[in-house]
UniProtKB/TrEMBL annotation:
It holds the Pfam family adh_short_C2. CDD domains: SDR_c. It comes from Sphingobium jiangsuense. Belongs to the short-chain dehydrogenases/reductases (SDR) family. This is NAD(P)-dependent dehydrogenase (Short-subunit alcohol dehydrogenase family). One of its GO terms (molecular function) is oxidoreductase activity, acting on the CH-OH group of donors, NAD or NADP as acceptor. SMART domains: PKS_KR. It catalyses: 2,5-dichlorocyclohexa-2,5-dien-1,4-diol + NAD(+) = 2,5-dichlorohydroquinone + NADH + H(+). Residues 7-184 form the Ketoreductase domain. Gene3D superfamilies: NAD(P)-binding Rossmann-like Domain. It comes from the Bacteria. InterPro entries: KR_dom, NAD(P)-bd_dom_sf, Sc_DH/Rdtase_CS, SDR_fam. One of its GO terms (biological process) is fatty acid elongation.
Length: 257
């Protein structure tokens, strides 16, 4: 088995939030990690006295992605793991979202992971590596207000299963369905601290997820323990969101008749 210090991971969008947690966790496991973004972080992403490489790269640009992956492979001699983490979307009314907006969301959340995976494929095949795509609960339930994002993430889940079929046995490809996660921008997504507490209380595990929860799942899927797992979607969502109708029923109990 390859020693931890000899494994190389590529993580897109690894400078903040879930991505930074994944980078730090992989560094702690002995990986050499390369990440990217459109602008450098204020401080290097580090763990256990080791730092991740950072390169500026717009992953929506397939040619730029090719140059970045080639540079990482030249620098480190191999690529064992690709984590397609970069993504997201601001809220947008589906009725009025501009074509340019929708295209950019699709490029970031669906096409960019494909570009990165294609560029890294020869290196992954050479070492029997794996790809982990970071998807979302928006892929598997309605996503009002971020409809194009949900559609893109659903496409990413479908892409995962197709690539697992096409690229096996040399390369395993899996997806993580990420639930409601606390990050440094949680207030922008979930509202006030009180609102976040109510959301956490509504989940079966009585808390929102953390970046480390997703990072642990990534490390598992990349490990020998997952050697026979490919084309899978691992749900990291604390048991899932409680259906709204149950709350309505509870609030109106006894009102019938």
């Amino acid at each position: 088995m390859v020693e931890g210090r000899d494994r190389v991971a590529v993580v897109t969008g690894g400078t903040r939030g879930i991505g930074a947690a994944i980078v730090r966790h992989l560094l702690g496991q002995g990986y050499r990690v390369a990440t990217c973004g459109r602008s450098a972080p204020e401080a290097p992403i580090a763990a256990d006295g080791r730092e991740a490489d950072f390169d500026a790269c717009d992953i929506r640009d397939a040619e730029a992605v090719g140059r970045w992956i080639a540079a990482v492979a030249a620098r480190h001699g191999r690529i064992d793991l690709v984590v397609n983490n970069a993504g997201g979307s601001p809220p947008a009314d589906a009725a009025t979202a501009s074509p340019r907006f929708s295209e950019r969301i699709l490029h970031l959340n669906l096409l960019a992971p494909l570009h990165v995976s294609q560029a890294a494929l020869p290196h992954l095949r050479a070492v029997g590596g794996s790809i982990v795509n970071i998807a979302s609960v928006s892929a598997v339930r309605p996503s009002p207000g971020t409809a194009v994002y949900g559609a893109a993430k659903a496409g990413l889940v479908s892409l995962t299963t197709s690539l697992a079929q096409e690229w096996g046995p040399q390369v395993r490809v899996n997806a993580i369905i990420v639930g409601l996660i606390e990050t440094e921008t949680a207030e922008m997504t979930y509202g006030t601290g009180q609102a976040q507490q109510r959301i956490a209380a509504s989940l079966p595990l009585r808390r929102m997820g953390r970046g480390e929860d997703v990072a642990e799942a990534v490390a598992f899927l990349a490990s020998p323990a997952a050697a026979y797992i490919s084309g899978a979607r691992l749900e990291v969502h604390g048991g899932g969101e409680r259906p709204l109708f149950l709350e309505i029923v509870k609030e109106n109990a006894g009102a019938v008749g």
